[in-house]
Amino acid sequence: MTVKNTEFEIQGINHLALVCKDMKATIDFYSGVLGMPLVKTLNIPGNGQHFFFDCGGGNCVAFFWFPDAPEGVPGISAPKTRPEQGELLSATGSMNHVAFHVPVDKFDEYYEKLQAKGVEVSPVINHDDSPSTIARRLHPGVFVRSFYFKDPDGALLEFACWMREFTAADATAEPRTAADRTV
Predict the structure, then answer these.
(1) What pLDDT, in 10s, does the model give residues 33-51?
(2) Which of 39, 127, 157, 162 is surrounded by the most beta carbons within 10 Å?
(3) 6, 17, 25, 53, 85 from 32: Cα distances, Å
(4) What is the pTM assigned to this prediction?
(5) Whether 56 and 84 share a structural domain
(6) To the nearest 10°, the Cα dihedral for 177, 179, 182, 183?
(7) pLDDT at position 127 over 60
(8) Residue 86 pLDDT > 70, yes or no?
(9) Each residue of 59-76: pLDDT tens digit?
(10) Taking a C-beta distance cutoff of 8 angstroms, is the pair 21, 7 a contact?
(11) Averaged pLDDT score across all residues of the chain
(12) Residues 41, 51: contact at Cβ < 8 Å?
């Protein structure tokens, strides 16, 4: 099912901007480990920096470095752990995780490659529509396969591949409101 935006011709994510503690460590991870080319660097007046990495498809993941940025707070600014370790919660307005789309036929290879590079990765997760939303085995109802890992600043990242096309039946959940919150 292909759904078209009739309001705006949005062509993807131009860039997602995160904040890092150490731009050198960020370059080492995103370019050195993940292979994303560093395509643009800016020194910001006041001693900050803004660097952009090509993450494919004309999209970038970017990082700010600020000399006075406060430390992130696990469980507030990002999840405390990876999903399979029991905690996916983060604060309203926070960035929970970034999922990078990878080809289905390269998924297992990339899992092993990240492990070989010393990256701690979650087990592979088969996301489906079961009550737990996770299947132990791959089956036709699995809509995405993924695994999670963290960058040097603790940002939760995911490699994911779609396993099937969505239909109208995939978007039927009733949206919750602020009134449904428990906080």
Answers:
(1) 999 999 999 999 888 999 9
(2) 157
(3) 40, 19, 10, 11, 27
(4) 0.91
(5) no
(6) 100
(7) yes
(8) yes
(9) 999 999 999 999 998 889
(10) no
(11) 93
(12) yes
Q: CATH no. for residue 104?
A: 3.30.720.110
Determine whether 15 is exposed, middle or buried from the number of CB atoms within 10 Å of its CB (0-12, 13-18, 19+): middle
Predicted local distance difference test score (pLDDT) of residue 143 = 96
Residues ≥6 apart with Cβ < 8 Å to 156: 78, 79, 82, 96, 97, 98, 148, 150
Instruction: Output the pLDDT for position 22.
Output: 96
Query: In Å, what is the CA distance from 77 to each residue of 17, 19, 149, 155?
Result: 14, 11, 16, 9
Query: Distance between CA 103 and CA 182 in Å, rounded?
Result: 38
> Domain with 28 in it: what CATH number?
3.10.180.10
Q: Does residue 62 contact residue 17 with C-beta atoms inside 8 Å?
A: yes
Model pLDDT, residue 1: 56
CA nearest neighbour of 17 among 58, 57, 56, 65: 65
Q: Tell me the one-letter amino acid at 9.
A: E
What is the count of structural domains for the chain? 2
Residue at 162 is within a domain: yes
Structure letter (DSSP) for residue 103: -
CA distances from 124 to 34, 41, 43, 127, 135 (A): 18, 34, 39, 10, 10
In a domain, 113, yes or no: yes
CA distance 153 to 124: 22
